[in-house]
Design brief:
Length: about 400
Amino acid sequence: MRTSVAIIGAGPAGLLLARLLQQRGIESVVLESRSRDHVEHRQRAGILEQGTVDVLRACGAGERMDREGLVHDGIELRFGGAAHRIDLAALTGGRRVVVYAQTEVVRDLVALRLDSGAPLLFDAEVLAVHDAETERPRVRYRHGGAEHELTADHVVGADGFHGAARRSIPADRIRTYERSYPFAWLGVLADVPPSTDELVYACHDRGFALHSMRGPQVSRLYLQVPPDADLADWPDERIWDELDVRFAADGWRLRRGPITDRSITPMRSFVAEPMRHGRLLLAGDAAHIVPPTGAKGLNLAVADVVLLDRALAAAVQHGDPRPLESYSDTALRRVWRAEHFSYSMTTLLHADPAADEFGRRLQRAQLDQLVDSAAAATSLAENYAGLPL
C-alpha cells in the first residue's frame, strides 16, 4: 500500500489527526494493533479542555459530546475538612472544561472514519518503521496472518507508550526523561449518581482522592494507594469507607452504589526528545506521559495533533517543510509546561509517604496560598482549563 500519511494508533490522537487531514483532502491510513471492541471500551480519563472541545466540534465529532458531555465552570479543592471552589470560567475569561470520557471521543471518531470509507485497519500490529530519514519511510505490520508494508510520505506514531513508533528511532537519536511517583491511583466506576456537580480534588493525611463522573448516573472515583497495592485488598466497603474519610466536609454526603469496574494505575511523568526523527513524528503518549492529576494527557495529545495537522498541510499541499522541521521544538514547549503543571498538582495534592511534619506543613501552606491568592488561583485555572491551541 501507498499513502500520504501513515498513522500508527487508533486512539484519540491518531483518529483525530486522520479526521483533520481528511477534511483538508490529505489521504491517510490508520493502523491499530488492537481490535475495534478493545479500542472502544478501554477506560481513560475524560476532562476536555476548551481547546479540545473546539477542535472536536470543528471536525464534526462534537454532536454527542455537546449532547451528553457535562460542562463544568469550576473545580473544588478540599482540604482540612473545608471546600474551596476554583472558578475556572471567571478566572480565565470564560474558558470551561467538559466531562466526556475519552472512550466516547474514540467511539465518535471511529464512527466518522468508518462512515467516510477511509482506511482504518484494526488488529494490524505495527512491527517497525523503516527508512524514516528518507523520502519514502516504510511501515511494516502484521494483519490477517501475514506481514505487509505501507509506504508513505510521512509517518505519525500515535501508538502509545509501548508502541513500535518510538522504538523504531535509533537509541542514539533520542533521549528520554522520566519520574516515577511513590503512589498509584485506585480508580473505580460506580453505578450511582455523582455526589457533586463539579470535580472534587481532596488532599488528606491518608492520601489523595478525586470525585469525577461519567454522566448523570455514573460516578468515577479515585484513591491514592501504594504503588504495590493489590485490588484483592480493596473490597467495595473498604473503598467507600476510605472515600468517605478523605472527602469529609460539613454538610456533604458521599453516595454509594455498585462498583462495576476497578483498576490500579501507576503514576509517572515521561518525555521523549525529539518528537521527530526524519519523517517519523511522535504524538500523544508515544512521546510523553503526565500523571493524571492535572487532566492533561488527552488534551496534550490533541495539541500535538493540531500542530501536526497544520505542519503536514504545509508540507503536503504547499511544499513548505519548515513547520514539520520545527514541530518537535514547538510541541515540547507546551509538553514541558503541561509536565510542570501536572507535577505541581500531583505533589500539591498527594500525601508523600516520605514526608516529615515540616514537609506536610509546607504542603498545607501552599494549599492555603492557592485559595487565598487571586494570582495563584488564576494560574491554576489557566493551566487547568488549557492554553489556546
